[in-house]
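Entry for the shared binder. Reason: the reviewer on the internal report wants the predicted structure included alongside the sequence.
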Amino acid sequence: MRALAIIGAVIAQIGCGSPRPVETTQGPPAPLIAPRASADDVVVASVNGKPVWGSCVTVQAARGANKQAALAQCIDFELLAQRAAAHASDADVREATHTAMVSELVAQAYEAGYTQPAQFGAFWGAAYKKGIFHLRHENYRASSYVRIPVPAGAPPAAEADAKAKAETIAAAVAHETGLMGPSLQELAQAAVPGTKLDHQDVPAYRAGGLDEAYAKALFAVKDIGRASGAVRTQWGWDVIAWTDDVPTADPPEADVDAALLPGIKVAYFGHWVDDLAKSLGVHVTLDNDNIAKLEDLP
């Protein structure tokens, strides 16, 4: 909302050719006249003295109309434009004009104008660092484990008991396929009834983001849905199922830029608006008392 308000002020100033604020109750500064497309453009008709250009007819004909229909459409456009200008004092017309001007500015100056990384300056570099790991990365694996926890300093007997139970679980699931968290937990509990088991579904990580022993066991599993043997991690004795895979990705830089661009354009929009406001010396004053009243609106 802040961004659109600033753009509205910017457009009002551009439209009036004045650095001074314009009251929002005023209509458009003057009736608009369709512009000539080029030096070779010709007037093919006029409506109340306002030109209908040949370029309009060419565009409409390219969209499928024959020449006479295209001419009629362009004359209709000019009639509608003059009718809208005559109603410029209507509140709904002013609002629609204001909204259309904002939309056109954003479409032409921002959406179509910001298409290359260099145009975003340092903002692109920061956003690139945050987003690149989603697009270019080594193999990630998701997993699920059951664990017999072994507290630090536990006696050898507790260590041996935990290891034996983990090996019993591993043997019970060794030939299972399609294992996921719930099925692993159910089979493990059945293998060692009455034993308290820790369990967690772990999202996809690269090997370097996991406990070293855990990662070594997980990445040694041959197929998704199969489980490892008993493995000692820093928390206890684990049996680990490989539940999902994110393959290694190394797209070319052009593909990375294309994938990051939509999100970065959304994030950069507020900065772009602020730069517009600064360049035109726009000053925004907030009425905090009235803003607070918005919370009471239905």
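Summary line for the report: Residues 94 and 100 are 10 Å apart (CA to CA).
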